Amino acid sequence: MFFFNRKKKLDVETFWKKKADYLFSPEWVDFANVWKVQCGESFFNVDNEVYYKHFRAVCIQLIGIIISRKNVRRERRYDLMEKRNKYLENINACEIAELYSKYNSLFGSSFQDGVRPMAQEFGISMSSENSKKIEDFFYDTFYSILSNMFSELNNYKLI
After folding, report:
1. Which of 7, 21, 40, 83 has a CA that sits 20 to 30 A from residue 96's CA?
2. pTM, to two decimals
3. In Å, how far are 69, 78, 118, 156 from 30, measured between CA atoms?
4. Long-range own/partner contacts, residues 45-51 (CB < 8 A, 24 or more apart)
């Protein structure tokens, strides 16, 4: 008996483009604001533009984690990195690209849990006074976002 993979195939570039378009949409700003409000008073004095830039950079890293974990061929991941950089360049988001590189390095710096150093940097970047509260809240938030993206892709095979 033969077993077939019944998962629908989804092109990794299509997945990236869909996620990237959402990240720079008004709907994403609403999504980001929900998390900011849920974090509570720790976030009252955080500059919105700083928050959006850092949160977008983290989300780009989270998308990259998903793509890596879904066993996308190495060549496709490299192609996608080029497309990601071009996308950010085309929308004049160079600062977000730089922040993404920082979060990418932080993720790779840990042998146990790369999300923790990302959350630490995120907390420090948002507030020196409340960085630990923000770190703890967004640590869970980042895992929630990862979980949702994994669930979304459960019926797909990225190619």
Report:
1. 40
2. 0.91
3. 28, 31, 22, 27
4. 45/127, 46/126, 46/127, 50/125, 50/126, 51/126
